Every structure is written in structure tokens, then in C-alpha cells.
Amino acid sequence: MARFVDRVVLHVQAGNGGHGCASVHREKFKPLGGPDGGNGGRGGNVVLVVDAGVHTLLDFHFRPHATATSGRPGMGSNRNGADGEDLILHVPDGTVVLDKDGEMLADLVGPGSEFVIAKGGRGGLGNAALVSKARRAPGFALLGEEGEQGEVVLELKSVADVGLVGFPSAGKSSLISVLSAAKPKIADYPFTTLAPNLGVVEAGETTYTIADVPGLIPGASDGKGLGLDFLRHLERCAVLAHVVDCATMDPGRDPVSDIDALEAELAAYTPALAADTGLGDLAERPRIVVLNKADVPEAAELADFVKPEFDKRGWPVYIISAVARTGLRDLSFALARMVEEYREAHPKETQRRPIIRPVQVKERDFAVSPDPATPGAFVVRGTKPERWIRQTQFDNDEAVGFLADRLARLGVEDELLRLGAEPGAQVTIGPVTFDWEPQTPAGTDVVLSGRGTDARLEQSERIGAKERKFARRVRRGLEARAEDDADQGGDTGR
Predict the structure, then answer these.
(1) Would the keyword Secreted be found if you checked this record's keyword annotation (predicted)?
(2) Cα–Cα–Cα angle for 274, 355, 283, nearest 5°?
């Protein structure tokens, strides 16, 4: 059974970056070959691309998890790891990307439009790329970063020139079936149409698309019935056509009251894409009134009676019968003229920029603030420090020293001193908390030591736990008494 899915929740995971390699070149008669560790490969991105051959989000309904491949680690002999392959996800034209809070990330309109929904992690640098004047043979490499992951919502908003608006069973599906080659489901009960139907209409030299969407009832703008599912597919329509059932037997309904109820719902609904499409609110779109089911004598009389009322509003009125196929030619050409007027007033852009996510401008690369949970502790936030933490091998002293150099050059150490941080204070960056030692100045020559170690980290004027314990025992007189006992024991032995 064919299904139309226009809203899905997608879980995405970009590829992780490959780790850098710490390697030393080994070759006969070349004892000092130097570092030759390669860089890790970049993780693959998750990319959405508009494909004209895709018309629904059904694939993502059954496969809601998308994971790109990770980059390969670097190797010796200056061999870089391979980059992860990007995962291309094909979506239909008119797809809108929302985050979990409902904020719009992208509006994808036009074949070929694309959006990187999750970026792959950067590959770590190998030790060959970390060589400097002070560090000739690094004994460490940088770790690859993790790829972005998250949850997004994909919504499909139909791309059509004309949208049919009307109560359930007003004859919208019948009308689109006779104007185009579309074959929607037609029945004599309300809400037969549960998913939008698109049709292509040719009127002279003009070709336009027409959308038949689920029926509208009072309260649709608040989500009643299929309201929001209905209204979402009208946001991109340039022309709205009111399809009115003139043969309805429901008490309290007539063409004028039906259209007034529809207009109230259109005015209450604010399109999320108004600023992007340039079409304005739904209440401001061009209107045309289609009085349907004129093949019934009572309906034809009612249509002639209410037509002057809509003429006063300045809306074109057409009396038709979708079943008898009368009045359709004039209606199709009238819609074609309205669509042409819109196209002349809104020429197509040569290049569309689908990304509308704002980028926050940062004044500084980092920020230091006191830790509210621990007195005397501090928290460092920022893109660079947090990325450097993720790249560091904390079981390698030389890598930790390299991290200290980078933080000092960035100005983190000066900011900690300005805020009154004491040696040994706890500093948290990302998921890592460590004791801060200001005695590892950046830019100084690195003392030669074994690979994977940094002698500067061993230089500290802090009194260790063993020394503090000894001093406490001295203050209590325990150490002097122990020495006297040792002396007396020595004399007795002699």
C-alpha cells in the first residue's frame, strides 16, 4: 500500500575523525630518522540533498538513523588516514529542517540544494605535523574529534503554484483529478484525503502545479482535525482557490459562511516560511472562488445567488461541476493568468541559499568563570579549549605539556591569574578537571627528555602530600619522639 509521509524525526551521527600517528622513521644507517607519523582522516558528513525524483519522506520513516563513516587513523612513513565518506540523504523538494526545539535550520527548495546536517570530526595531527623549533621529535599525536550527532525533524511543505482550500468533501480531489492527471482517492465521506496530492495543469502555454490537501475545518489553525498538516502545505502556494460545496445539506452551512470560516483559519495561521518565501501571510495571498457541484439544480441556483457577494470582495468567481466537467476550461486559464502574474512579480533566483541558521559572533575564543559548585575552582569555556581537550592524550605527559602551551598562548593562564587563581586550583575544561600549575610557560625551550614525557611538568614548587604529612608530624612532636626512640634502641643494641 502506498504511503505519504511528510514529517519524520531523524537521528544523525557524523563520522569521527581518525587519530594521528606518533611514529619515528626507522631505516638502516639512519638512527635519527625523525618523526613520520601521518594525520588522521576527516570523518564523513551527513548531507541532505534535494532530489527531483523523491516525493516523500517515507524512507526516513522506516530508517530514522543515519550514520556516516569515520576517518581512518594516520600511519607511519607520513601516510595520512583516509577521509570518511559523506552520507548523502536524498529529500524531496520543499523539505524544511528543524531542530529539536522547533527552530528552523534550513529550507531546501530547488533540485540540488543541500545542507550539511552533521559535520564530521576533524582528524588528529600526527607527530610529523607537530614538529617545531623547540620540539624536534614529538612523542605524541593528537586524537581525532568526534563527529556531530543529534536529532532533527524533517517536514515536507508541498511546492505548488495553486492550493485548493475547502471543507472536507467539497470536491477538491475531484477537481484536481479532472484538471490534471493526478489520481487521488475520491469517496463520499469527510477526510478522504489524508495526504497532499500534486497535479500538473497545462493551460495554453502556461504549465503550473496544483495541490489538493486535507480538508479544513474551524479550529484547524490550533491543530483541530488535520489542521496543521493541511495548512503547512499551503505555505508555498502563490494562489489559493476556495472550493465550495454548493450542494451541502449540512444545517447552518452556506458558501459565504464556509469561506468566512476558512478565511478566519487562514488569518490565524502564521506561516513559518513567510519571510523566506516572500509570499507573505496566507491571508494576503491572491484568492479565487470555485463554486462546485453546479450539476445539482439547487446548487446552481445557490451559486448564482451568492456570486455577487464574492464579486464585492474583488475575488474572481467561477461556477463549475467537477463531475459534469463544466466550467473547467475558464477556471484553468484564470488560474494560469494568476500564476503568470505572480511569476512576473517574483522572478526565480539564479542561486538559492537554503541555509538560514544564524551564526553567533563570538568576541573571544574562550571565557573563564568561577565554578559555582566548588569554591576556588574555575571553568573554562570556548570552542578552541574544548576542542584541544578532546584532542589530548592525557596518559602522555608530552601531550599534556603541549596542551599547556596552547592554553597559555591563547591567554587562559593570564585570565586565571587575573581572576585570582591559586596554584593547585581545580580548572575544568569540557569533561576534564585538572589541578592548575602556572609553572609551564609557553614559548620556552623544551628540556630534552624521554619520548612521551615533558620535564616541565615535574618542575613544581608545591609542597607534596608526603612533605605536608611530615611537617604535620613534626608540629605534633611525633617525628622527634621517633628519632629519640631510634637512638635509644641503637644504644641498647650496642
Answers:
(1) no
(2) 5
